[in-house]
Amino acid sequence: MNEKLERMRELIRILTEASKAYYQDDTEIMSNFEYDRLYDELTALEEETGTVLSTSPTVHVGYEAVDELPKERHEQPMLSLDKTKDVEALAAFAGTHDTLLSWKLDGLTVVLTYREGELSKAVTRGNGEIGEVITPNAKVFCNLPHRIPWKGELILRGEAVILYSDFEKINEKIEDIQAKYKNPRNLCSGSVRQLNSEVTAGRNVRFYAFSLVKADGVDFGDSRMRQFEWLKEQGFEVVDFEKVTGEGMAAAVARFAEKIADFDVPSDGLVAVYDSISYGRSLGRTAKFPRDSIAFKWKDEIAETTLLEVEWSPSRTGLINPVAIFEPVELEGTTVSRASVHNVSIVRGLQLGIGDRITVYKANMIIPQIADNLTRSGSLLIPDVCPACGMPTAVQVVSEAETLVCTNAACSAKQIKSYALFVSRDAMNIDGLSEQTLEKLIAHGFIRTFADLYHLDRHRSEIVQMDGFGEKSCANLLQSIENSRKTTPARLLYALGIPGIGTANARVLARHFKGDLDKIREASAEELSGIDGIGEIMAGAIVRYFGSDSSRQVLEQLLPELELDQEVPETQTLQIFEGKTFVVTGSVEQFANRNALKAYIEERGGKVTGSVTSKTDYLINNDLNSNSSKNRKARELGIPVISENTILNWQEE
């Protein structure tokens, strides 16, 4: 059964990737035949197992919105667990009894009820007595089964969590650092308790079962481990666990501790519960805690060290974040030398000063933090100029916390998106410069203009020492920068980030002016708007860009670093699609993918857009009789639907 469920999860992953590539990226990574074959295999497994997972492409989820989350009393109160940080106390709890040791996940506890094999209700823990009903949101948890083979009433508890990797991806998309989520637990709590389940669906919330409350009529042989195995058979993911006794407890805790550094699921400790259900129940409970289980919290390993400096790191929002640099110490098996101090309020609260003796630890054995400042000299100066641009800073109060910000609207740290565009594949094509890396280089003051990218070799010794870099990666980056010096006017025009100028428009401009950048810079709005595919709005943006003193200065500094191929070869390719607008949909047969077909059309003067409108001249779809939305729209507007063969054998009418 478990092998079949794993195969279903694998099929869902493969089919989801294929659909995303096809519908979002216009790229085919498998044939329609192969997709259908895998889809049929998944459907057969769902029928065989009686389990349908929420992310299955066979499920069509309708999102729901509510005005408020209704409250509901739990059938059984949800008690907190007694806690210990002592491994010996944990071993004493287990004694000679078989005990299940599992992760204590750091998310939001949810109680699920299934009836007739269908998810019928989901309620948050709340205060332990009364929780909030979040059933529509639970239905979009990315790993939760919508349907299970067992048809009786099932009640189980588990933790809703957001993985660290998903948390980082979500935060990366938020430009305002004040709006970024502080940790996965807070993000998960807000995501699970949304009034609109469509928001929840976009957060990749996962559910891990940790307790079976009710499944009348199922024989579990008095074993909680058997309950876990049975839940797996129903399609649930359960918390990782080991069965141990007191004698093996220390070794088991050590095994979990070794995993936590690379564990993607937020966890703040472990839980021990007796395997024997009857024995656990016989112990009853105290006023606050059940006696059959106990939580183990990691004992923070604290080290004393010396504060060497505080690095003030500018961000794209203008916020300048303090990072403590201290003499390296060993914590939880790794060497640590840096810790975020978060804001000016914490800097002042700790009364930091260079040379102070501080204590540091890893929160939840992962995130380095300053525990205390033993010296408290309070001598650290808050910088009055931005490290990235050299302009004045200011201390502002945001959410009752003092933060340091750069007052310069044109600060290079705030222009991270423009730098990311400049180095992208279709622009200057510089490998090794992600937004995160660019932020680091800008924060160190190495990059203030585009031209500075071509002088990063001056900072080689510092870059090699930066997190994520070494000799080899630094050498690769510098070589990639050198390779990008030789480029084309079209690539450069796109890289500059002129509003409205994409790769196709940049090629149109370069072709029209035969690669002469000076003529493009001096062109009037009237001349530019007369170029097919440019238009008045785009022409105005180009004139404004090149009319700006700051833009001219950026370009004047950049041009000496580049070798532009001024000669735009007069190819033998006739501009047979000039003035024509196409939309491509469906699978392609004569080209590697839809992007290749798009390039073929653009090379011959045509334009390819993503949606069918009244301005579309032709819709390309090899299935001429398809009833897809684009085909229907084309028919409504009287737009011809043509095949690839028509394109390849094009004859101007």
Task: Write up what this structure looks like.
This protein has 653 residues and is of the alpha+beta class. The chain folds into six domains: 2-49, Helix Hairpins (Orthogonal Bundle); 71-297, D-amino Acid Aminotransferase, Chain A, domain 1; 303-406, OB fold (Dihydrolipoamide Acetyltransferase, E2P); 412-484, DNA polymerase, domain 1 (Orthogonal Bundle); 489-564, DNA polymerase, domain 1 (Orthogonal Bundle), CATH 1.10.150; 581-648, Rossmann fold. 34% of the residues lie in helices and 22% in strands. The protein is built from 24 helices and 26 strands. Strands 14, 15, 16, 17, 18, 19 and 20 form a seven-stranded antiparallel sheet that branches. Helix 1 (2-23) packs antiparallel against helix 2 and helix 16 crosses helix 17. The longest helix is centred in the first third of the chain and has 22 residues, at 2-23. Mean pLDDT is 84; it is low at 567-572.
Query: In CATH terms, what is the fold-level topology of the largest domain?
Result: D-amino Acid Aminotransferase, Chain A, domain 1
Structural class: alpha+beta
Low-confidence stretches: 567-572
Q: Quick one: biggest sheet?
A: 7 strands, antiparallel
- How much of the residues is beta strand, in percent? 15-25%
Q: So, the CATH homologous superfamily of the largest domain?
A: DNA ligase/mRNA capping enzyme
Name of the CATH class of the largest domain:
Alpha Beta
Residue share in helix: 25-40%
What number of domains? 6
Radius of gyration: 30 Å
Total strand count, please?
26
Continuous helix count:
24
> Architecture of the largest domain, according to CATH?
2-Layer Sandwich
